[in-house]
Amino acid sequence: MLKKAFSWVDERFPLSEVIKHELTEYPVPRNLNYMWNFGFLAMFVLIVQLVSGIFLAMHYKADVNMAFDSIQHIMRDVNYGWLIRYLHSTGASAFFVVVFIHIGRTLYYGSYRRPRELLWWTGLLLWFLLMATAFMGYLLPWGQMSYWGAQVITSLFGTTPVFGEEIVRWLRGDFVVGDATLTRFFALHYLFPFIISAAVVIHLVALHWVKSSNPSGITLRAKDNIPFHPYFTIKDMFGVGVFLIVFCGFVFFNPEFWIEADNNIAANPMSTPAHIVPEWYFLPFYAILRSIPDALGGVITMFMAVAIFAILPWLDRSNIPGGALFRPGYRIMVYVFFVDVLVLSYVGAKPPEGSFVIIGQIATLIYFGLFLLLPFVSSHEARRSREKGLPHEAERLIREEQEDLLRREHGVRRKGDEERLGQTDKGFQGEER
Amino acid sequence: MASDKDLDRPDRRDFLGAVTTAVGAVGVVGACYPFVSSMNPSKDVKVKSTSLVDLDSIPEGKTHTVEWQGKPIFVVHRTDEVIADMQASSTDIDPQADKDRVQQLQWLVVIGICTHLGCVPNRTESGWSCPCHGSIYDNSGRVLRGPAPKNLVVPPYEFINEKKIIIGKA
Q: Is A272 left (phi over 0), alpha (psi -120 to 50) or beta?
């Protein structure tokens, strides 16, 4: 019966073909570690956010006079409203935790490198959309932090030369953040997740074309790949289980951990809280913004801090594949970068006074300095490592990969060439046996 | 850990797979429950599910309309004359004895929505008449003339004491 139903569908839609191609026969390197779980986790959190968000929208009112009270209504009156809201607010932070680890993994293992540049770009686009969505969602509870956060961020666009004032007024639809701003943020906060979902599909199409990278950074031969299902579905589900333990721990036992206390006070356009901070996931960029003494310069530098990731595949000039594994210089740079981002986050959470200003400026310098140093460090390091000699296995795999690349780059399609290259392939296989 | 004997018995693994799937399915259903539940009436809606009516304020022979769950409820303080009249009469469309429609003879409580298509009937000397399609009800809320198919519905209510009723179930 089931078989019959499947064949009925298959005649009209490539269902079995898709399952085969994307799951049961989709090849995944067998040496992936748990760092490769976070893409799947990000998708899981996206679904949690979509579902909890849709149910919150059934009870939320996007009106300056009702928004704050409707959150209280959700927390007190709606059945399990407290749970759905805390899932959503904790989920926002969890989304960034998961995405940051996902990006950190990409940096550490050099997953952004050829041929995954477009995969990397779609990932950066997703990160950008996520930041925009989170920022607009944060205004909706209409608390003090919501209000002043939105006021400050929309003001950033006021530094635009010539049209600054007009752009800010256009963004807000009001002279300050007001009813028009709240309503449009709600509309866009509901829209963006669907754009994100579409971008996720593109991200996955790109991934399934170039396939997953792996800790060695070297493209594995067919026999070193195993099918996604069941091996990685099981591994990813295990990861989801571990994730849920931590996530539910926060949702049920400490949900306010991720919420600024001041946001439990209704927005008051007449009085700014003594110390306003953005959500934790914006802190490094907030610190970069503040470390530049010029308003326009600060905004440009902040946007640059995100945008500079896009040219990373071309800044990395090493011909040793992968990230930190075979590249000691790069490894140190990645670690310095991680620490630097943590320092920036810390500085971003502190008031801009005294030594924090200097620390922030130095950390900003290191942030961009690492990107600018990368071309020199990576090419120098590659020369040195090859001279000193990499492990025998790695050398051979690298040679193989480079031959493969050359073959594709020069579009060797003549029969004779294929045969000659085929022979060297056989030579390697013979050696192995 | 797994001995060679276990490896020869793949049914152990099938069993673990089935149990894991079952537990996972229960978990997913459990996770769905709060979301489904959130669409049910919230607490502020539920407080509207009962209405308290002070009968003292309704003089004999008068009808008060009160709100219960957003619907109009007719509370009639009937005179002895009307009571006797109603107890003696009967109707054809939806036959029901007057005593089955009241808890105390002088108090009639009915939902003020025509059983035909949902309009609110107007009070007349001898009962109610619906402005929409001309249905007529008597002083017991029983339908005398169609198109309404049923008598006016008696909501669940309870006498808390002699002078107070609560409509609806908490």
A: beta
